[in-house]
Amino acid sequence: MAKKKPLILVTNDDGITAPGIRMLIEVMNTLGDVCVVAPDSPQSAMGHAITINDTLYCDKVRVLEDQTHQEYSCSGTPVDCVKLAVNEILKRKPDLCVSGINHGSNSSINVIYSGTMSAAVEAGTLGIPSIGFSLLDYSMDADFEPARSFVKSIATQCLKKGLPTGVVLNVNIPKLPKNEIKGIKVCRQANAHWEEQFDKRVNPLGREYYWLTGEFVNEDKGEDTDEWALHNGYISVVPVQFDLTAHHAIKDINTWDLS
Amino acid sequence: MAKKKPLILVTNDDGITAPGIRMLIEVMNTLGDVCVVAPDSPQSAMGHAITINDTLYCDKVRVLEDQTHQEYSCSGTPVDCVKLAVNEILKRKPDLCVSGINHGSNSSINVIYSGTMSAAVEAGTLGIPSIGFSLLDYSMDADFEPARSFVKSIATQCLKKGLPTGVVLNVNIPKLPKNEIKGIKVCRQANAHWEEQFDKRVNPLGREYYWLTGEFVNEDKGEDTDEWALHNGYISVVPVQFDLTAHHAIKDINTWDLS
């Protein structure tokens, strides 16, 4: 009996026409049956936002002339795309969900702002093995070619081995030529944060407004972090969980006087 | 020497005029110097979204006639509000950030969609002890009175004892009269998810669209979860972390063939 090809859901947060998702679709088409459900416009930094007070459009589209898989363009967030795909579009639960390849880093604390990773996490909550891929190059001209073989090998292993319950993968790829990428490291999330500097301006009507401009601050010197790996030429793979409970803190809070 | 009063930042995701934040402001005014920076409109289910491709307005407002503290109404998301408050508005780092009181539950997996909790988490990344409060009543007429003394005691303990590094609190309050609330339980996040049913409609121009309508599915039978506590008349307090690393999974992924 021929083994059924795996069903792979592809999404992202840069929008359905971004170069990063195009590369991801190409690679996934070598591994299984692909269905794309992705935002119709850029949705970066949308975190785990969902659309509850507005309507959602989701239309079948043909992006490539020779396209054999199905693609849907959705007016919602990355998380909306996953919900629509799994509950409305796909006839069965996908064997894998991949999100990206994001134009820009989602390492360290960026994971909590990332639409790319939130889509992967949403699929994880539905019991679907899931991976978010990001390249450390924000440009729309970014070169995704060096990432190709690594994306394929990580997705292949994930299809073969599955993932522990409640875990999805956050994969970040340094901006390097392929022969300078030293390999893949499984890491922990570096302990870092953003310090914002708001650019204050005045609009033509005289009202003040701001642009958010931040600086990434990493004070984590550990050599087992994603930031260390990326700065040292490695692809970082962080297993991410959506049980946010700080189990170690329960005992401490239980000493509080809350009568 | 008189001890300096604590500085308390108050925000939410239901918008600056919501009854829930009004109660929170009242309680915090009994504990310290209050500054409110909250969204100018409802921002529920915005997760950890931030505004990077648009401008932000943030205007000083007077909501109450007899208001002695400062309030700012912001066009952005709950996380934007915290970033603006800490980096642009406040003269020093607040001693406490409280978010809510949300109209509706943020227990279990809802924590990842919640604008209320994302604001608290953002403050946590900046090293500020932080608590998100939610009442299990979505109504704008919800009765927040039974929550008052509990909100005060939890915030008081947090000011007194601080929180472990990298931890914020997710507090949910059952919809019960005060004499039926049995107490406070420190819990873990229940392992649950949403199953969506999309309500498909056709717009006046003949184009199909969807409304997201979901069902909360909790298969976690544990008696140490927030869901159990809430269903049994307790206020749930879950310590939440933003290091999402699934440390237990690192060993497993390290067995993968990623050459």
Helix-strand category of chain A: alpha/beta
Rg of chain A computed from alpha carbons, rounded to a whole number of angstroms = 19 Å
Main-sheet strand order of chain A equals 3-4-2-1-5-6-7-11-8
The poorly predicted ranges of chain A are: none
Strand content of chain A: 25-35%
Q: Give the oligomer, counting copies of the same chain as homo and different chains as hetero.
A: homodimer
End-to-end Cα distance of chain A: 64 Å
Give the number of domains of chain A.
1
Order of helices and strands of chain A: EHEEEHEHEHEEEEHEH
Give the tally of β-strands of chain A. Answer: 11
Mean pLDDT of chain A: 95
Within CATH, the superfamily of chain A carries the name Survival protein SurE-like phosphatase/nucleotidase
CATH class of chain A: Alpha Beta
Q: What's the helix count of chain A?
A: 6
What is the name of the CATH topology of chain A?
Answer: Stationary-phase Survival Protein Sure Homolog, Chain: A
Largest interface: A-B, 87 and 87 residues
CATH architectural type of chain A:
3-Layer(aba) Sandwich
Most strands sheet of chain A? 9 strands, mixed
Shape of chain A: globular
Q: Helicity range of the residues of chain A?
A: 10-25%
